[in-house]
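Here's what a typical entry looks like (STAS domain-containing protein):
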Amino acid sequence: MSDLDMELYGYLVDRIESISNEWLTQRRKEHGSIYSVDADKETEAYLKEQNQLTNLTVTSSLLEDKREFEKNKEKWVRLVAKSRVSSNTPIPEVLEALSNARKVYWRFVERFLEINSEKVTQENLLKWGMKINRAFDELAIEFSQAYNLLMNNKLSAQSSLIDELSAPVIKINEVFGVLPLVGDIDTWRAKKIYECVPVKCTEINISHLYIDLSGVSIIDTMVAHQIYQLSQTLDLLGVKSTITGIRPEIAQTAIQLALDFSKIDTYSSLQQALKDKFLIVAEQSVK
């Protein structure tokens, strides 16, 4: 590493905070963006801290030993990707901010060139340009990759939660559980119920599941068939199923499909089914 390389490195390291301060002044008013000029002080503080790390990381690319750059880059990517996923900041918005950071950074390089115009050669300029631009490019690429990975994990977790809430199996004692279904059940939701419920029953060791349909507004032929298949699957797993809350229109749909529910206990209400199994005490005995 030449003396001039070290001079540029030292010049930029000494001005890392100044570069960040100038970058912050470039912000515009953008509704709902963390990069907006009217963002709160806390947001501005961590943006400044992260931009300082950006500047330090890019500057470390000028060193001959690339381990420092790789270490800083890894830290920057992890910190910024996690932060932007948390704030739901879209990738294009982040890349635009990084592009603005690159422009400001180059202004400081240009100021160094003006001060040292007699010493800087075209070869120096080309070498620095390649290193600095490559460093910014690597930050953009690896940030995008890390962001997509974190966002996919986040969406997957949310999807799993939605699936679980779509088919909430509630354990009411050591062996009995209730699946209270509420609202419309379309084909997609019926499929999720069919996929998730047997797994959930196995996980929490349920041997008898009450499937309550009293809160279901509409069930079409496809959904009725899925519920029938669910009871059959549970039976193969050794889990007895009881269907409660069957209304006349649901019963008619089952008959039209020639679905044989004769081997499955059915009740007009969940309360009646639980009374028959002595899981609750009838109101008369309470009195």
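Residues 170-286 form a domain with the Transcription Regulator spoIIAA fold (CATH 3.30.750.24).

More examples are in the samples folder.
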